[in-house]
Specification:
The structure is a single chain. The chain contains ten helices and 33 strands. It is of the alpha+beta class. It folds into four domains: 30 residues, no CATH class; 87 residues, Immunoglobulin-like (Sandwich), CATH 2.60.40.10; 126 residues, Immunoglobulin-like; 256 residues, Protein-Tyrosine Phosphatase, Chain A, CATH 3.90.190. Strand 25 and strand 26 form a beta hairpin. It comes from Lygus hesperus (Western plant bug).
């Protein structure tokens, strides 16, 4: 109550609506006071700066970014909020940055921060009057292990000796998004299937007790990229015999295949590995042994006695046998039968004999094939310009049977691809066996298909197996044409079955077009055999139902182009011989013949036995089940058959083929 005509009301809140009511009273206090009717009016206080944010804290913290949430109570807004601003900078640094968020947002992310660093974050609301009071949050950014590089990012071979391998790797193999890379080390394995993901790795000394070396760490972690973004490192350079602790870069075994990977650390306990490199084989040790005087004397005496005995026996033999021309066979060919036919009527008994005692006789017979063809030259494959085109350093095509591409101008090595002609049932050059194309050689692969006039490709590997690349995805992913060099490839259709996929592609070069079929067996493990083996029988028969004997050569590949490819070809030859009424089978001779054309055909004993098992199943009728039904036909492909630029369907192509 006041007698003043003006009255100031204090301690009101900014930007609030208030109602004021005035009542006038008259008269003396000693008499009855009279009251007027109340008169009311509404007023709004003016805006002010906002109050403090009452809730400001992170809800997700990553090495290089942080997400905050916040709350500004309505009672603290003090006006119309225009935006929120987060100001941030490194602790003890004068340099700051800021990021604005809209008035209705209650969370937001700050990116581009440095892992492992401590930042100060401050948030303020703003009205038209200005910014409110700051609320502060202090946060140290975490450091995590580097992200896993892609499967193509692996160390590469530079050179090798009988005890060392020099590799090359690059700084950009690992992203630093989770923290700066502080050190690197090298991991080597002869048997990469063993677990190698732990922080504590065996050393070179630790693996000496193993016949096949599991993964081991070569050196203490170090940082090699102070002056360059590319570094070469040589494995096997140290003498470790007297060293009893720590890691040691000891010598490798000669003639042995290794794989190498790089490990990168962001902190001493946070690391990530690349995938393993492609196999790298050390050279054979050809260092001559320093012999004593007595050893040559003993050898000389032994040879002399042997020569005397040999002449006596030869003299006796000449008197008791008719003379014959000199034998001109090589030592290997004269010492080994190259053909061992088995009557089909006795095949089951023969198989049981061979498989007795844990497949002992299979092991003996397969061992006899070990060196077949190995004396032949592969000089073109080992030229410096051609080495990068080989997926594996120990799988090189022989010169005499290699497929030769048409040379491109005067480019050295332009006629080279890792592929050989291999005989089949219908022709000595029925098959072209090649490695799974590399990304860098897939243009050459399609050039080979075109220049050989091949109408079928048999693929016996998946592109990625156990996390490792076995073959490039060298064909289109969809129905859009893709150019591989000057050859375009377009998918016509695709039919999927439980264990394989059959596709048809149009190959085009200039104005000429052809159809080529692609048979992709998808359930055959590397170095192993299909389970059950009869699956392979059904696949070979499904292949032969679509590909006539005169449609050759047929391109066959797995990963290396030796093990699974050789097994497929051997079974195809056997099944065709049965269809032509053969009463014997010569599995040993088939493999022997293939190995004279391409190294290591039918690579493992298990694959060799698989051929026997498949034939036994055929003879005993175990494979006589209905052919697999198609489980998926890509209608998207089919619907576009007649909509392609060429306006030619698959059926049109096959009609043209018959007219040629």
């Amino acid at each position: 109550m006041t007698q003043e005509e003006k009255f100031v009301v204090t301690e009101l809140k900014p930007h609030r609506n208030y109602t004021f009511t005035v009542i006038v009273r008259s008269g003396q206090e000693s008499t009855v006071l009279r009251r007027s009717l109340p008169v009311s009016s509404e007023f709004q206080t003016m805006e002010s700066v906002p109050g403090m944010v009452s809730h400001f804290q992170p809800i997700d913290v990553q090495p290089s970014e942080i997400q905050f949430e916040w709350t500004l109570l309505a009672s603290e807004q003090n006006g119309v909020i225009r935006k929120f601003t987060i100001t941030f900078g490194l602790e003890n640094s004068m340099h700051t940055q800021s990021k604005d968020f809209r008035a209705w947002e209650t969370s937001g992310t700050i990116r581009g921060l440095q892992p492992g660093k401590t930042y100060i974050f401050k948030i303020q609301g703003e009205t038209k009057i200005g910014y409110g009071r700051e609320v502060t949050w202090k946060q140290k950014m975490p450091i995590l292990a580097p992200p896993k590089p892609s499967s193509q990012v692996v160390p590469t071979e530079v050179c090798r000796t009988s005890t060392t391998i020099q590799i090359r790797f690059r700084k950009n193999y690992f992203s630093e998004v989770n923290g700066p890379i502080t050190s690197y080390t090298v991991v080597v394995a002869e048997d990469e299937s063993k677990n190698a993901s732990g922080l504590e790795m065996p050393s070179w000394r630790d693996v000496q007790a193993y016949r096949v070396w599991p993964p081991y760490q070569v050196i203490e972690p170090y940082y090699p990229f102070k002056n360059s973004s590319v570094v070469d490192f040589t494995i096997g350079t140290e003498e470790c015999e007297g060293k009893t602790s720590g890691y040691c870069n000891g010598a490798l075994k000669d003639g042995t295949t290794y794989r190498v990977k790089i490990r990168a650390f962001t902190t001493p306990d946070k690391f990530t590995d690349t995938y393993y490199s492609f196999p790298i084989q050390t050279d054979r040790d050809t260092t001559p042994l320093v012999l004593g005087i007595t050893i040559p004397a003993i050898i000389f005496a032994t040879l002399f006695i042997g020569l005397v005995v040999y002449k006596k026996r030869r003299h006796i033999k000449r008197r008791t046998t008719d003379p014959r021309p000199a034998d001109t066979l090589s030592i290997q060919d004269s010492a080994m039968e190259t053909s061992r036919p088995i009557p089909l009527a006795n095949f089951a008994d023969h198989y049981r004999i061979m498989s007795a005692d844990s497949d002992f006789r299979f092991s003996e017979e397969f061992e006899e094939l070990k060196m077949v063809g190995r004396e032949q030259s592969n000089s073109f494959a080992d030229l410096p310009c051609n080495r990068p085109k080989n997926r594996f350093t120990n799988i090189l095509p022989y010169d005499h049977s290699r497929f030769k591409l048409q040379p491109v101008d005067d480019e050295e090595g332009s006629d080279y691809i890792n592929a050989n002609y291999v005989p089949g049932w219908n022709s000595p050059r029925e098959f072209i066996v090649t490695q799974g194309p590399l990304h860098s050689t897939r243009d050459d692969f399609w050039r080979m298909c075109w220049e050989s006039n091949s109408r079928a490709i048999v693929m016996l590997t998946r592109c990625i197996e156990k996390g490792r690349e076995k073959c490039d995805h060298y064909w289109p992913y969809d129905t859009m044409p893709v150019y591989y060099g000057d050859i375009s490839v377009t998918t016509l259709n695709e039919s999927r079955y439980p264990d394989w996929t059959v596709s048809e592609f149009i190959m085009a070069r200039g104005d000429t077009q052809r159809v080529i079929r692609h048979f992709h067996f998808t359930t055959w493990p590397d170095f192993g055999v299909p389970n059950p083996p009869t699956t392979l029988v059904r696949f070979v028969r499904a292949f032969r139902e679509r590909i006539a004997p005169e449609q050759r050569p047929i391109v066959v590949h797995c990963s290396a182009g030796v093990g699974r490819s050789g097994t497929f070809i051997a079974l195809d030859r056997i099944l065709q011989s049965l269809n032509h009424g053969a009463d014997t089978v010569d599995i040993f001779g088939i493999v022997w013949g293939m190995r004279k054309e391409r190294v290591w055909m039918v690579q493992t004993e298990q694959q060799y036995i698989c051929i026997y098992q498949c034939l036994l199943a055929v003879l005993e009728g175990e494979d006589n089940q209905a052919p697999p039904r198609e489980i998926h036909h890509n209608q998207g492909f089919e619907g576009k058959k007649n909509d392609s630029d060429s306006g030619v369907s698959s059926a049109d192509f096959h009609t043209r083929e018959k007219q040629r």
